[in-house]
């Protein structure tokens, strides 16, 4: 099965009204690509970005997080209804920074995936191992555990509407990156794990690689049969660098 590539830029907690205007305008110069191109601004700038890309069909809007609750007394949280108000399509769930810095457990991540799906949003489920876990040869165990927690709550069929992003924690923001073959090996194992429950779902699900993705390394990465795109961090804040990654995917 040919799966469409996705290149998603996670801007994290970066930007100002001026810098985001400049970044988005740079991205609007994108030439046509067969890849789906997703931008993930911080919450305060969702409206600003949504207004600009409403006229530009080449960019798709995502949010960096969501609440597992529908509404109510949850100060500082953002609900799915608020996200859909801004025509958000995707939402990152379970990013390693949310897991490690804010204590999001596998169970919380699963509830957030369920909430996103119930609102018609497509979760980008982030999974991946720490350096200690990789050195202990637990990479696949960790990835399988993180995926299984979600399957337990939403079922395997729901993964037809879920994107998986494999992000080895040791490679995020460190400049280190898994080799194309290392990424392929893990992606293949994730897909095989899903196939044990449903082959059709496993063939359909898009699995992105994240972790210090750069234009210079992305071309080889995208030749791998089980790598369906990238979740890009720091490099997505540079319009030219990010568009070079999009070009490599397309």
From TrEMBL:
InterPro entries: Aldolase_TIM (IPR013785), TIM_sf (IPR035990), TrioseP_Isoase_bac/euk (IPR022896), Triosephosphate_isomerase (IPR000652), Triosephosphate_isomerase_AS (IPR020861). Homodimer. SUPFAM superfamilies: Triosephosphate isomerase (TIM). Coiled coil: none annotated. Pathway: Carbohydrate degradation; glycolysis; D-glyceraldehyde 3-phosphate from glycerone phosphate: step 1/1; Carbohydrate metabolism; erythritol degradation; Carbohydrate biosynthesis; gluconeogenesis. It comes from the Bacteria. Belongs to the triosephosphate isomerase family. The lineage of its organism: Bacteria, Pseudomonadati, Pseudomonadota, Gammaproteobacteria, Oceanospirillales. It is found in: Cytoplasm. Keywords: Cytoplasm, Gluconeogenesis, Glycolysis, Isomerase. The keyword Chaperone does not apply. GO terms for molecular function: triose-phosphate isomerase activity. The active site is at 95 (electrophile), 167 (proton acceptor). The keyword Flavoprotein does not apply. Gene3D superfamilies: Aldolase class I (3.20.20.70). CDD domains: TIM. This is Triosephosphate isomerase. Involved in the gluconeogenesis. Catalyzes stereospecifically the conversion of dihydroxyacetone phosphate (DHAP) to D-glyceraldehyde-3-phosphate (G3P). Substrate binds at residues 10-12, 173, 212, 233-234. Its EC number is 5.3.1.1. It catalyses: D-glyceraldehyde 3-phosphate = dihydroxyacetone phosphate. GO terms for cellular component: cytosol.
